Amino acid sequence: MRPLLQHNASKLLGLAAALLLLAAACAASIALGTTSIRLTTTVEALVAYNPANTEHVIIVTTRVPRAVFALTVGSSLAMAGAMMQALTRNPLASPGLFGINSGAVLAVVLALLLLPLTSLSQLVWAAFVGAAGAALLVYGLASLGGGNLTPIRLVLAGSALSALFSALTQGVLVLDESGLQNVLFWLAGSVAGKELGTLYQVLPYMVIGGGAALLLGYPLTILSSGEEMAKGLGQRIGLVKAIAAAAVVMLAGSAVAAAGAIGFVGLVMPHFARYLAGTDYRWVIPYSAVLGAILLLGADIVARFPVQPGELPLGVVTGLIGVPFFIYIARSDFNRRRAQDETNRSVS
Amino acid sequence: MKPTVPFRSRHPFLSALEDRRVLILLVLLLVLMAALVLGACLGSTWESPFQVLLTMVGVQSDSAFVIGTLRLPRLVLALLAGAGLSLAGAVLQGLIRNPLASPDVLGMTGGASAAAVGFIALSGGALSIRWLPVAAMIGALLVSGLIYLLAWKNGVSPVRLVLIGVGISAGTSSVTMLLLAFSSITSAGKAYIWLTGSVYGASWEQVLTLLPWLLLFGTVAWANARKLNVHQLGDEAATGLGAAVQRQRLGLILVAVALAGSSVALVGAVGFIGLIGPHIARRLVGSSYGVLLPASALVGALLLLLADTAGRTLFQPLDIPAGVFTAAIGAPFFIALLVRHRRL
After folding, report:
1. What's the whole-model pTM score?
2. Contact state of A326 with B170 under an 8 Å Cβ cutoff
3. Residue pLDDT, tens place only, A304-330
4. Which of A17, B83, B193, B284 is paired with B177 by a 20 to 30 Å CA distance?
5. Which fold has domain B20-198+206-333?
6. Shortest Cα distance from A316 to chain B (angstroms)?
């Protein structure tokens, strides 16, 4: 498929436009809500903060942290998804569908139950362990199944693992009823009511993972065109894969630790990025990062309005956006890939 | 799984073989009864099996309340729902000729639970619980129809069907959350209790709500065992044998929808029973539906009964939803099926 943007100049321009859109989404996220705040006041609050002004207080203590959470979590998930799709050459690969998000959630819930952990900086390590465990399980299954586990079946295996992890999480939650109410909202995915301080505890990992993702753009492009090709071009496949996997675990794990399991961002946005910028991951990854942030900011704005005075869990909004898209991929791209896979297998 | 001949065995002693399968059914029934009695014994206080049997036949005693009003309805409800889900799975596996086919994968469970939550949350208790199975069946029907339509592309490939099912399940759970968010706090609370597994406060009324549906559609399924035998041979063979393939398939899918929907309405979205039950039953008695259906029902009943009893007794006084245990067994089972069956 020909990407929408052909030349490097137009891709750069597109990225700049996406960044502008992102800035607009941030502004909208800060300005819109149960109390609408004028844009001038918003700017004023950021430039000259006045604690006596309620609108300023709302902006600085709730709206801004919320926007920052949505931005970082959205771009982390989208970058993780883009890398997974490149690594596995599977269009449905994403932290949500492969059970990595739910593995991280299970690990966090278990850690809350068993260990005397309170701060997010400790919980984030539990999330990493869970995400890594789930990733290893899926990867192990893929190698165990050999040729028998085609990409499409790997998705099914991932969904079964996800079902298992969520059922176990539910069981653990029953064991620890006191913390239930808070954890439940966190599980469905939410960026509301968080303090910026907690974000700083996971931000370093997001930055490291994101930086690695950006640097891996070129090797991932080669790897995504086939392992033989990458080997032939002299790439150290093992090293690239290991670093990319570690970056996926960091990005997905810290996103879950910050905001709970939010599905479909990591699935949808890399596709959109490839539609715009082609298959060169040097472009796909930054595009995914910006687009993922825009999607989550948008979803978070949408989540505020339908139910007054409460709001919808963010995971519900992204789910409603993501499911039609998932079905679109399942109906189209996949069968061609699967046919290709089968021919490859019969040839080899 | 070793290939089995659906119609007749090449075994020279046909009657002996049938005796053996009937014997297996009887043993399953006995094990189920034993599990029922044991389940009624276990709990925060131990009641003797003798006492349980006395209560079952209607003798009044000090422990009759605990056994007859608290424990037995719950056990019987789990038993019935397990049988219903497993029967639905057995019917679907024969119709779609796919080992992965089950009410959860085909969206029936998700659709039924979204509809049940909608019914509880939006009606706000104005309508009687007796209508809950109907609402759940409609939900199951709509969602499984949607999945079938979306998976259609020059015919329905089994793997695409399952894949679309995965996506739509995510969608139904989002819709469920949405319905909860839009309903008033009291009815949302009721719906939430239902979601976490309503076997908790089971009563004989719930048992009586489920029983007629299961009896009706279970009998319909069993009466159609011959048709199912023909269907699992494949469309061409079935047409050749004179079956009205499309019409019968539609009718039998409706039976599966009714069985799964009514079970989910009463016990919540317990996963994987409809997948594992028929597989174990097939191992035990082969794939002739005349025996396979009762065996599936018995195995499914036993599985859910054990899962619920384990959830109720292992972590006392806490009550772990039965779905946790069925998923713990079911998910690895599902993955093993994926790995082992090259052609699905």
Report:
1. 0.84
2. yes
3. 887 766 778 888 889 888 999 988 888
4. B83
5. ABC transporter involved in vitamin B12 uptake, BtuC (1.10.3470)
6. 5
